[in-house]
Amino acid sequence: MIRTPSPRPRPFRLSAPRTILAAALVALAASSVAVPVIAAPEAPAAAVNPQVDAAVAALRAISTLQADFIQTDRNGQRLAGVLTMQRPGKIRFQYQPGVPLLIVSDGSALTMIDYEVRQVQRWPIRNSPLGALLDPNKDVARYATLNPTGHPDVVSMDVHDPRHPEYGSITMIMLKKAGAPGGLELNSWIALDSQNRRTTVRLSNHRYGVALPANTFRWNDPRTTGRK
């Protein structure tokens, strides 16, 4: 007998369904093949707004961070949990009890583990909206656009790579706070994937410089008895 899973809220959607994901991977593979082309001269880079520079510097200044989060999807479904981040590139979304899902980045790739159906999916950091937050090699300022907020203590910026719309976009909201690295604290972000699916994550109770166990960014593989 095939068990039909009961409906439940789903966490941050890191990619499109399998068929679309497969097509995207094929496109990425194809794009890695060198093809001689005659490129037009690049336009001079636009000057980076000082507020964008300050926001990027504040993100880069985080060594470790733990914060409570509330995640809301486009249907208004909410999940809570604890976010743990360590630069460069590591993050863990530990969801509330009863939600058998985990999202972890080990510094090179994002992994979503669904313990209910014993499924593991993995993507390079750069291929998701969170790449702007986690990818140490991404030139965030180059792809960032400052949004007017009307408040001197609030910085909002959109980040998306126009050459790769399939990576989605992220809007980060930062608040001025003296105790935060760089004087700015990441308050929330809104992620929009290539399928126009919107997810909002709000942070609270930030703890900086937290000592983290060595296994923080590891996970149990539900497909085997071994440990990843």
Can you give me a brief rundown of this structure?
The chain contains three helices and eleven strands. It is mostly beta strands.
Q: CATH-wise, what's the superfamily? A: Lipoprotein localisation LolA/LolB/LppX
Q: How many strand units?
A: 11
Strand content: 35-45%
**Mean pLDDT across all amino acids:** 76
Stated plainly, the CATH topology is called outer membrane lipoprotein receptor (LolB), chain A
Give the class from helix and strand content and strand pairing: mainly beta
Instruction: Give the helix proportion (percent range).
Output: 10-25%
Q: Per CATH, which architecture?
A: Clam
The succession of helices and strands, N to C, reads HHEEEEEEHEEEEE
What is the first-to-last residue Cα distance?
31 Å
Unreliable stretches covering 5 or more consecutive residues: 1-46
* Spatial strand sequence of the major β-sheet: 6-5-4-3-2-1-11-10-9-8-7
Largest sheet: 11 strands, antiparallel
